[in-house]
């Protein structure tokens, strides 16, 4: 049976984070608040858990799952070399609403879907999410909704859509305006804007010192 924890209260927040960490380590799914919308997450290195995440969302591997991290330093162990542009964007916007797509280290034993050797990374600006990520390590996280339905802006909206497929729900209150993260692809010769979200294209271009166009 799923458990919902109110993270607005110190005692239940502590209990919820412990339960969520235990669930992630045992290959189960959790819902967590982020600075954009609620996310459904699993251990990024547990292929069975990631498959369960995709099944809960009624989504196939052709739409791979991104990875959330709890610190800047975590990224160095996940990527195949760190592009200069990636370091600049991380320094400017993390933790926050910017996702970067980079080539992942070939030694990593994970299966996030059809990624073609890349991974989308983000460090969220939310204390509950960061505390969980720092406890369990990188998590595969997608928006907490069934594909085709609106993303969950509250824990209850996530419960209504995902139900018993999730072991632990961490309720961090309403997420606010459901604006997605901006996604920048750094795997090609030039940076490409895959999605403009909470961070404007102009802000990204200013940090990179060059214009950034949409993916072709």
From TrEMBL:
EC class of the enzyme, as a word: transferase
Keyword Repeat belongs to the record: no
UniProt subcellular location: Cytoplasm
UniProt entry tagged with the keyword Transmembrane: no
Catalytic activity reported: L-threonine + hydrogencarbonate + ATP = L-threonylcarbamoyladenylate + diphosphate + H2O
GO CC, alphabetical: cytoplasm
Cross-referenced Pfam families: Sua5_yciO_yrdC
Domain YrdC-like: 14-199
Keywords, comma-separated and alphabetical: ATP-binding, Cytoplasm, Nucleotide-binding, Nucleotidyltransferase, Transferase, tRNA processing
EC number: 2.7.7.87
GO molecular function: ATP binding; double-stranded RNA binding; L-threonylcarbamoyladenylate synthase; tRNA binding
Signal peptide (UniProt feature, chain positions): none
GO terms under biological process: regulation of translational fidelity; tRNA processing
Family: Belongs to the SUA5 family.
PANTHER family, per the entry: SUA5 (PTHR17490), THREONYLCARBAMOYL-AMP SYNTHASE (PTHR17490:SF16)
NCBIfam families noted in UniProt: L-threonylcarbamoyladenylate synthase
Protein name (Swiss-Prot/TrEMBL): L-threonylcarbamoyladenylate synthase
Organism: Saccharomonospora piscinae
